[in-house]
């Protein structure tokens, strides 16, 4: 199986329902873009830090969440410095940091399976024209096939290495796609043979 | 939409995820890494067509959002959508749909050149037209500045469009998926 980004824990933040956490994240994000002031940003920052502390996460987790955007944020800070001074630049960069940390807090404290269960439960209330079973099938199948496709990709790379083609993207992609499409046809026949549709 | 279409959508979403393992190619001189994942977006549209391609990108992004580290570099979770470049991820959906739509329209005249131009239009022009204003808006910077910041990625994206075009045309020869649907319609082209 593929592992999610969840960090194990049994805290208030972990136990909160995935839907509620997601809603809180969207509200926070909207508020920070509607009220562009430090009066909104500072309490939000404290709230997110408190969330990290309550969830038992460390500064290391917070830094790991920000690391991929560090260079872009540094560049934005420099550009903003030119347009709106230190305070404005600090505000924009800190707003990104707060939003990214808030989003990471949700991801780190919620299992992917909880979200999947949430989606499935939500689909039960969806109107009739929504192809509920098909959406559920697609989500389950993709999660099931990601490890298999990764293995297949490594296999094809090994085979092409023997031909000296392991860095040729076309020699890797064409077999991967054609083989997957053929597999897909067989899987579809197998599902239809069990008359799921 | 048949079960077969659902399986194609699901498996292509898994292909896009598997492409995160592709070793990034570093362009000399400007030192910008090219990752294969946005190549997967072009392929989703070009191989599956507009509807199935777009849905498979949406499915992939949903799995990223709910906490699977499927983006290259092992990134994932809701945070990737809240960063300055979140617009490009949303733009991927539109890019796949546009590439798929044009590939369907030009299916009978599809060759390396037309497929390359389609990929450039959908995967670069349309994608940047969404990603750049989005970055400018969330980072509060002028659009021109955001555009300048994205410019170093264009050579890499042109290389990707070239690769995608060759793959799309080659896969069309051995496993045409868009043709199969058009066959039972009155011949339009």
UniProtKB/TrEMBL annotation, chain A:
<dbReference type="InterPro" id="IPR003339">
    <property type="entry name" value="ABC/ECF_trnsptr_transmembrane"/>
</dbReference>
<keyword id="KW-1133">Transmembrane helix</keyword>
<feature type="transmembrane region" description="Helical">
    <location>
        <begin position="22"/>
        <end position="55"/>
    </location>
</feature>
<protein>
    <submittedName>
        <fullName>Energy-coupling factor transporter transmembrane protein EcfT</fullName>
    </submittedName>
</protein>
<keyword id="KW-0472">Membrane</keyword>
<keyword id="KW-0812">Transmembrane</keyword>
<feature type="transmembrane region" description="Helical">
    <location>
        <begin position="62"/>
        <end position="83"/>
    </location>
</feature>
<dbReference type="Pfam" id="PF02361">
    <property type="entry name" value="CbiQ"/>
</dbReference>
<comment type="similarity">
    <text>Belongs to the CbiQ family.</text>
</comment>
UniProtKB/TrEMBL annotation, chain B:
<keyword id="KW-1133">Transmembrane helix</keyword>
<feature type="transmembrane region" description="Helical">
    <location>
        <begin position="151"/>
        <end position="171"/>
    </location>
</feature>
<keyword id="KW-0812">Transmembrane</keyword>
<keyword id="KW-0472">Membrane</keyword>
<feature type="transmembrane region" description="Helical">
    <location>
        <begin position="6"/>
        <end position="27"/>
    </location>
</feature>
<keyword id="KW-1003">Cell membrane</keyword>
<feature type="transmembrane region" description="Helical">
    <location>
        <begin position="39"/>
        <end position="66"/>
    </location>
</feature>
<keyword id="KW-0813">Transport</keyword>
<feature type="transmembrane region" description="Helical">
    <location>
        <begin position="78"/>
        <end position="103"/>
    </location>
</feature>
<dbReference type="Pfam" id="PF02632">
    <property type="entry name" value="BioY"/>
</dbReference>
<dbReference type="InterPro" id="IPR003784">
    <property type="entry name" value="BioY"/>
</dbReference>
<feature type="transmembrane region" description="Helical">
    <location>
        <begin position="110"/>
        <end position="131"/>
    </location>
</feature>
<comment type="similarity">
    <text>Belongs to the BioY family.</text>
</comment>
<protein>
    <recommendedName>
        <fullName>Biotin transporter</fullName>
    </recommendedName>
</protein>
